[in-house]
Amino acid sequence: MRDFADRIKRLLVGRPVPSGALGETLLPKRIALPVFASDALSSVGYAPDEVLITLAVAGVAATSLSPWVALAVVGVLAVVVASYRQTVHAYPSGGGDYEVVSANLGSHAGLLVASALLSDYVLTVAVSVSSGTSYLAAALPALVPYKVEIAVAVVTVLAVLNMRGSRESGRAFAIPTYLYMGVIGIMAVVGLVQELTGTLGRAESAGFDVVTHAGWEQGLTGLAGGFLVLRAFSSGCAALTGVEAISNGVPSFQRPKSRNAATTLLLLGVIAALMLMSVIHLAGAVGVRMVEDPAHQLLHNGVPVGDSYHQDPAIGQIAATVFSGFRPMFYLVATVTGLILVLAANTAFNGFPVLASVLARDEFLPRQLSQRGDRLAFSNGIIVLWLGAVAFLIGFEANTTRLIQLYIVGVFISFSLSQVGMVRHWTRELTIATEPRDRSRMYRARIINSIGVLGTGTVLVIVLLTKLTRGAWITLTIMALLYLVMNRIRRHYRRVSEEVAISDLHDARVLPAHVHAIVLASRLHQPTLRALTYAQSTHPTVLEALTVDTGDGGAERLLDAWEEADIAVPLTVLDSPYRDITRPVINYVRSVRRESPRDLIVVFLPEYIVRHWWEQILHNQTALRLKTVLLFTPGVVVASVPWQLGLPGQRHIHHGVRARTAEGIIDADVAMRRHVDSHLSHPDQHSPAGTGGVSADPQENR
């Protein structure tokens, strides 16, 4: 069974990679860009939509502000990118926001950021995959009933690819990411050329009228109008999600890690800004109309378009207009955009495991998350992320509209605290820097980060005000639970470290006064003899076998076999009128412990090692129950003695247990194969402990 499971693992994950090959799995910039930037770039597929939908609340005229909103988003993006370029140089270990905040604002603030990032990574996978699945379902309506199953399958494929290692997954995702950038770039260039030459057409939705929401008939006026613009701005800031992934993934870059990560950040910022501004501008140029409820808010000749109308995303409407004379290009843009939304989840599969490994190293998460798998990927972190994303997809039925309400809040909490942390970092550095050039650079960096605090903090407040009751409270609750759990894990690890620390080396080396070995036996067979052999090889002060009489005749048969084999180990029989095996053994062991509190008691349990999983159900249940209780008994050591069922060569390996027969002391295996008529000899005839035998009298061995 294990061999079969291992073959399946090798097929999915690949052959193990030695630790020395870690450098070969590191990413060059050309692969790091699509690996870490796909999340931020893919947000261009839905961030413009959110801006247009939000502004459309106040009517079509309000959407004319979308380029200015996009420009404000680009401004914040520039500040965030500039800040994170400093972060990857100052903190290259991969902790990103967590490390920055922990070092400058304390462990509690750092843990808050870690909780926000972990939850945001999970939501990134869920939102991206559900959105990409929606594109697929829109192209193939027959798949609509299976959206959840498809989304779960996609996340599973992403997890398996990442289990194979960053380089392999990076190569797999590089082509579609570059293709996405290429087709959006071509669409932007062709659209701008058509606009300049006067040949740019109008979108299908441009002929629709938009029903203004109640209370907004006067458009963007007063405080409410300003608040709506801020809402649109916060929605557009979805384009910033994923920027932090590069700072968390610095260890995955080739050397020089910090410089390569900073260069990749700059490329990401420039490309994302150009794509966002191009899409927003062309959406206005072709007259794209997008609303929250198109069936009732879009009017054609004064009549609602109804449920039969499908509202394509902004990029889809732009592509249909720009490439109206070449339909295949429209399908390519739509397909690649849907694909990149799915692949955007790969950014989280690179960032989450690295951050989890840093937290595990700091003892805030289980240490298993800090260990690399066979392919040098943080496999356990990938599995945890997969489980979390699948839970969200199933719980929210892969509904992007519902999932998007939980999104963004976590990343802007980390953005804001990271900016504050970097301001404090530069302030501290300025107190020790003396070179004018260095101080000038630090002053500039602090100004940039201060602007970042203002920008990201404003976005965070707006997001909380506009999304709290729509689902952001779920994210905040998850963050709070993660914070509490990680604090408890840290306290547990510290308590364990204090408990097992050596306070007095001399006392730690003191051996127990005596060792009392107990071998549990249900019948006399080779596993029992092996356990007796191993027990005797430890040279205990006292060695005895123990069985329980449940009234089924098994104890009498064991006694007869014991006498027939003339084994020189005393056999103690415990009476159990209620047919329970566990309690009498536990009570006996504890009574021995009470009588000799300074002695060490070692209980040897013969166990079957089965070859098939279903055989485990048929064996070892009593041993498992006994082991579970005995492990919590102070002063008691449990030793499992394995017997591999079905494994050739198991016979004739017991050379330690001696049995007395009519012809003298012989090997126990031989005694088992011979029929003797004599009974146990007197205790004074037994071999002394010094010669390898054990007295049959328990009192003699005490």
Automatic annotation (TrEMBL):
GO terms for cellular component: membrane. The keyword Transport does not apply. It comes from the Bacteria. It is a multi-pass membrane protein. It is found in: Membrane. GO terms for molecular function: transmembrane transporter activity. Residues 677-702 are annotated as: Disordered. Pfam families: AA_permease_2. The chain crosses the membrane at residues 51-84, 105-129, 135-161, 173-193, 264-284, 329-355, 376-398, 404-426, 447-465, 471-489. Keywords: Membrane, Transmembrane, Transmembrane helix. The keyword Membrane applies. This is Amino acid permease/ SLC12A domain-containing protein. It comes from Actinomyces viscosus C505. The lineage of its organism: Bacteria, Bacillati, Actinomycetota, Actinomycetes, Actinomycetales.
